[in-house]
Amino acid sequence: MKTLLIVEDDRGLNKGIALTLAQNDLAIQQAYDITSAEQILSSNKIDIIILDIHLPDGSGLDYCEKIRRTSQVPIIFLTANDMEPDIVTGFELGGDDYITKPFSLMILRARVMAVLKRTASRGEDKITLGPLSFDFGKLEFYKNTEQLILSKTELKLLKILVANPGTILTREQLIDRIWTQEAEFVDENALTVAVKRLRAKIEDDPAAPKYIKTVYGLGYMWAERPNP
């Protein structure tokens, strides 16, 4: 059974959402502010969050940003704001969907189930390659028993590479996908540095890499396929 956390200070709305979504075989956790949400999230396995943007003790946008430092749990924003900048900010901070008030509970239920279906189709983002174990959902990465601490850039680079085993990815493609809107201002040396640092963490011999191969004149390729 999946567990949903509702973070909404309007108790009536919170209860209405809980009653509606509990019918979909979801376990429900309820919070009315960020403080109580943090306590629930730290002690329970949460599969999806419905998060109001305006909460008594802070901004849901700021809280989303904090969650994204350690977790990729799906987040659906609720807000009375339908201003375009708020919507854009929500997605840029890692939100998976955005619903403005007032809304139909049936539509919210459909959105929640759609997000859960999408995340389930990603196979929980777990990949094992010999001594390497990557869990992109929990942001936990190991080489044998040693936990690897990856920067945001290294994380993006790793995820793109392992998602395309055996495929040559050009330097231009990698820069565009890692730095997105800032790509045109990024020096190509930044990618070289990121590859070097990632190799140092995952390769036994970074000078003769097994996983991240250089394709001279083109770019890089992830050479290993996940274990069956």
TrEMBL record:
Q: Which GO terms describe its cellular component?
A: cytosol; protein-DNA complex
Q: Which residues carry this modification: 4-aspartylphosphate?
A: D52
Q: InterPro entries, from UniProt?
A: CheY-like_superfamily, OmpR/PhoB-type_DNA-bd, Sig_transdc_resp-reg_receiver, WalR-like, WH-like_DNA-bd_sf
Residues forming the OmpR/PhoB-type domain are: 124-224
UniProt-listed GO biological process terms? regulation of DNA-templated transcription
Protein source organism: Paenibacillus graminis
Query: Pfam families recorded for this chain?
Result: Response_reg (PF00072), Trans_reg_C (PF00486)
For this protein, the record's Gene3D superfamilies field holds: 3.40.50.2300, 6.10.250.690, Winged helix-like DNA-binding domain superfamily/Winged helix DNA-binding domain (1.10.10.10)
Spell out the protein name for this chain. Answer: Transcriptional regulator
Domain Response regulatory: start-end pairs: 3-116
Q: Which UniProt keywords apply?
A: DNA-binding, Phosphoprotein, Transcription, Transcription regulation, Two-component regulatory system
Identify the DNA-binding region of this protein by residue numbers. Answer: 124-224
Record's keyword annotation contains Phosphoprotein: yes
Task: Select a single GO molecular function from the record's annotations and give it.
Answer: transcription cis-regulatory region binding
Whether Nucleus counts among this entry's keywords is no
